[in-house]
Structures are given as C-alpha cells and as structure tokens.
Amino acid sequence: MIRVVFLALALLVGGQTAALELKGPFTQGALITGTTVPGSSVTLDGVPILALPNGSFVFGLSRNADSKALVTVRHKDGRIEQKRLKVRKRNYRIQRIDGLPKRKVTPKTRDYKRIARERKLLNDARQRMTKIADFQKGFMWPAHGRISGVYGSQRILNGKPRAPHLGVDVAAPTGSPVVAASDGVVSLTHEAMFFTGKTIQIDHGIGVGTIYIHLSEVLVKKGQRVRKGQLIGRIGKTGRATGPHLHWGLTWKNMRLDPALLVGPMPDALKKQR
Asked: Is residue 179 scored above 70 in pLDDT?
C-alpha cells in the first residue's frame, strides 16, 4: 500500500505561525489535498488552482503525470512559497476482456452522436467548481465484493487495444447495494448511457467527483444532497459490461484518478460479503 505523505512548510503571517500542508500519496493517479493561509493564491506548474476561503485546495496527479510537480503559493503580502514534489511512477497491468458485444467495442457510425452527447453530459458534471469541501470528510468503499478491475490497466477488449481503465471495478451480484463514497451533491444521473449504462455522478467540491456506473438501479436524483454511506443505487451490468459489477471512478475536473488510493485495500471480509 502506498504511504500517505504530509508536507508542511512553516510560514510567518502577521506574527503568527501557519502552515502550507499537502496530504496524499505523491504518485501517478493520486488526489492531493492542501491547506494554506486563507486568501493566498495557489498554482500547480503555473496553472491556477481554486482555493476555498479557508485556504483549502485540491489537485490531481494524472495517470501519466511527470516525475516532478511544482506547487506555488502567493500570499496576500506578496511573499511566495514553493514546494517541488517528486511523483512516483507506476507500472500498470494489461487486462484482457473477451465476450463483449461487438457494437460496444466498435460502435456503429450512428452511435457516435449519442456517445458525444453523453460524453458532454459527463464532462459538464465533472467541471463543476462548487465551493464546498465535502471531499475533506474522507471516502469509503461504495460497494463490497471481488476487485475485478484496477485503475490504469491497459484494456484489450475482444482482442482490440482500447483506452486504459480509469477506475476500480467491484464484482458482486446484481442488486447489491452501492453507497455514496463521501458526502456530496448528485450532479448527474442517467438511465441508459451507451458505454456506462445506468450512471450516477456525485460532486464533492472544487472539481472533485466520483462516478458509479453499470448500475441496475439509480436511487437518487440530480441535485440531491447525499451523505457518506447513503444508499444511492444497486450493482448491475448495464452499458459495456460482461457481468454485474460497479465501476467506481474518481475525477478532479476532467482528470481521471485512482479512487483506491483514497480508501486503501478492501478488507478480505468485505470482498466475500454478498
């Protein structure tokens, strides 16, 4: 398991000690949370990051992130603090999946307009920058069962190379419960997306979101506030799936990250629950 690292820089602001703190595993696919002096501005490799009024901020390290990253904080008095991160490179698996419907691997020409519309819906939901910090309340596994797919693996579908798998799959019988991984607001629900089937997206604040797909039932509505552990749906095999499972994804804006890094390995006892 990747060790979570805390980095803190002591600052002197108005005669009082404060800290710039970064929390997370500094590895490809990780979500990093941070705090600094309220009112400061933050950039990652020169790109501005939204910080909440209390000084909280968050950013992601992509699947193929460079080995180094630079966090810069500019305080209201003009002082600048910088922290250089060393980002650990990961080795990703190759996963072969056969038996998928041919059309779900190579869509027909008439499918592409639908796929584009649905992709825009997902991207719009992921781009929400609501000024809430529900992500700070921590995350839990949203379903229990066997881990059948991991983040970052190169997918070979019906013998054809396709995009990497950018989430975690939990295999369990159809109808098994799916709960919200953390507090948040439902930013999207859909009953029949081409690839993802019945789908739920939850906004956890300033660009952080989780997605739950291939469901058999959607039990929440767009705009509904949900609590960590609340039942939101049930496992199914809708969309592009060969069997019943939950695909659980984590995003920072449109960057797909590894949700397993937030919760650690699933206990063996939970993998066997039905």
From this structure: yes
For 110-178, give the DSSP string.
THHHHHHHHHHHHHHHHT---S--GGGG----SS-SEEEE-TTPEEEETTEEEPPP-SEEEE--TT-EE
- pTM across the whole model: 0.87
CB burial of residue 211 (10 Å; 0-12, 13-18, 19+): buried
Strand 177-179 and strand 154-157: pairing? unpaired
Residue 9, SS3 per DSSP: strand
**Topology, domain 5-86:** Immunoglobulin-like (2.60.40)
- H or E stretch at 261: helix 260-263
Work out the average pLDDT over 212-233: 98
> Going by C-beta distance under 8 Å and a sequence separation of 6 or more, which residues neighbour residue 15?
none
Give the tens place of pLDDT for each residue, 101-154: 666 667 788 888 988 999 999 999 998 889 999 999 999 999 999 999 999 887
Question: CA–CA separation, 21 vs 234, rounded Å?
Answer: 37
Question: Is the four-CA dihedral 138, 142, 146, 151 of positive or negative sign?
Answer: negative
Q: What is the DSSP letter of 268?
A: H
CATH topology for 94-271 is Glucose Permease (Domain IIA) (2.70.70)
Kindly tell me the burial class for residue 223, based on how many C-beta atoms sit within 10 Å of its own C-beta (0-12, 13-18, 19 or more): exposed
Where along the chain do its domains lie? 5-86, 94-271
Residue 24 has pLDDT above 50, yes or no: yes
With the C-alpha atoms ordered 127, 163, 138, 214, is the resulting torsion angle positive or negative?
positive
End-to-end CA distance of the chain: 25
